[in-house]
Amino acid sequence: MKEAMPVLSAGAGLHETLALLTSQLRPDANHKEDMVFLKDVFSERSLSYLMKIHEKLRQYERQSPTPVLHSASTLAEDVAEELQSGPMSAEEKELLHLLTSPHLKAVLSVHDTVAQKNFDPVLPPLPDDFEDELDEESVKIVRLVKNKEPLGATIRRDESTGAVIVARIMKGGAADRSGLVHVGDELREVNGSSVMHKRPDEISQLLSQSQGSITLKIIPAIREEDKLKESKVFMRALFDYTPLEDKATPCQEAGLPFKRGDILQVVSQDDQTWWQAKKVSDCNLRAGLVPSKQFQERRLAYRIKMGSLQSSKSPKKAVYDQGCDKEDCDCEGYFNGQYIAGLRRSFRLSRKDRRGSSGEAYVSEQNDTEFLTYEEVTRYQQKPNERPRLVVLIGSLGARINELKQKVIAENPHRYAVAVPHTTRLKKSHEKEGVEYHFVTKQAFDADAQNNKFIEYGEYKENLYGTSIEAIRSVQAKNKMCLVDVQPEALKALRTAEFKPYVIFVKPRIPESRRRRSAATSPGGGEHGRITEEELQEMRLSAQQTDQQYGHLVDRVLIKEDTASACAELRSILERLERETFWVPVSWVKA
């Protein structure tokens, strides 16, 4: 015979009720495990708070206090209006300030809600033909409270049955937070209005226009899906996305706009076409729809095939950082007594010569079409025992990044260095092997080039120059941060787990005025005298082309207004690289 539960007095509290639970354990149960379980439950601080709240509510119920006024908010508004109708004393002004403050208004609003007992949900009455209408199917009445935010769910019409089905629940939205609406549920009514014969766009409009309380009549899915698990997949966006301009999105209002370079946390990849994602560091907890990597790649491939989109591999060669204007310049110089050799200006064409054939640079070619969609990333911080990251500088016309690099290295040669380049030219009397250059024969240079030992190389006045991978490794082996400036085409070859490059795009600040600039306001710092509007336009075009073709590989853009401020900013970046955390491709970080 089943033992009856002891009868509690009317005034028994929750503590007393819970205390009797231990005496009702079944004799054949594992008494020790049950006791441990109950002890853990009762020791929870949250349960203690709930018990105190319960006691307070019981006490309130027994006392049954009667509110003096059911509309304190209205009275406060009337008093405030009366005070403003005439001249006010200091005390009256203070009272008006209190009555119109948001916090007091909120307190009075809550008081009125409790006094009028408007906090209990009121469900609409069920229709008389309810059972016949649903053919004995289970029905669920869901009442949600939302402000101006979207409901956080998308719908579709089942092609075979014609039913309106919940197609997607957005992570963090009102529907998701309620836990009452699930993917696959059939939607029958919204606020008492049938949706059986409405189009999906009409239903979406009905849902979006509903403010405050919204009541849904739902036929639960036969098999409810589990709640979305928080994903740890992070993607760097390699393109700009505006949902309102995307006609393919299932719901433009549910789309998540983002810019190239934004870090997205992908919380769901269940749909092969549309992912759910949130922007990292965004205060908005709701997820939005973004095109999946596969879907975006298919769209880009189709657009390229139809000719409406140019391939990411441009047939035109961008105009890059200008070279030295001196005809015999090897761009070598002394800074603070430290001899520093520059490579790239030796074979990079100067502004006045770049249309000729006096020099040309070569980098490895990438023939495969690259679709710029997303790149999976993770956080990375350099460890004390790791080699410093490679710092890669690229520049548009007029940036003069070699000068910038040399000045920073000259200020701290013990921490920063350049990769010593190779050359086939004859050694000068003051030069030392392995200091200014590695001097090699043309045969040896050609062999290294054939074996892809150079990140880039070029010819200038019948002499070959090149920066080798081993030269970079040699700098890093000394625990120094290696700074290289390369043509942007070389970035792909350098983006490896070994180097973990941090790419800085340096471009000059270009004035917008059309009049000729004086040397003091020229982007190059004044060494080239006056700059014409045509030259300024070339600088703008160079920066735009570099950003368009290689901006997705850039970690930081440095606007160079003058050499001093640019050096200070570059030093700050280099110092942060050694102590802060950055987003890098997941392939660069070993598990």
Number of strands: 24
Q: Tell me the overall shape.
A: elongated
Strand content: 15-25%
Number of helices: 17
Gap between N and C termini: 60 Å
Radius of gyration computed on alpha carbons: 35 Å
Could you describe the largest sheet, including whether it forms a barrel? 6 strands, antiparallel
Average pLDDT rating: 77
**Alpha-beta content class:** alpha+beta
Helical proportion, percent range = 25-40%
Strand order of the largest sheet: 10-9-8-7-14-24
Quick structural overview:
The protein has 591 residues and is an alpha+beta fold. It contains 17 helices and 24 strands.
Give keywords.
single chain, 591 residues, alpha+beta, 6-stranded antiparallel beta sheet, 5-stranded mixed beta sheet, 24 strands, 31% helix, elongated
Describe this structure in words.
There is one protein chain. By secondary structure, the protein is α+β, with helices and mostly antiparallel strands. The protein has a six-stranded antiparallel β-sheet with strand order 10-9-8-7-14-24. A five-stranded mixed β-sheet has the order 13-19-20-17-18.
Break the fold down into its secondary structure elements and pairings.
Blueprint: H1 14-19, H2 31-42, H3 45-63, H4 72-84, H5 90-99, H6 102-116, H7 130-134, E1 140-146, E2 153-157, E3 164-169, H8 174-178, E4 186-190, E5 193-194, H9 200-209, E6 212-219, E7 233-237, E8 263-268, E9 274-279, E10 288-291, H10 293-306, E11 332-335, E12 338-341, H11 344-347, E13 359-362, E14 374-380, E15 391-395, H12 401-411, E16 416-417, E17 422-423, E18 438-439, H13 442-450, E19 454-460, E20 463-468, H14 469-477, E21 481-485, H15 491-494, E22 502-508, H16 533-550, E23 556-560, H17 563-579, E24 582-585
Parallel strand pairs: 15-21, 15-22, 16-21, 17-18, 22-23
Antiparallel strand pairs: 1-6, 2-3, 4-5, 4-6, 7-8, 7-14, 8-9, 9-10, 11-12, 13-19, 14-24, 17-20, 19-20
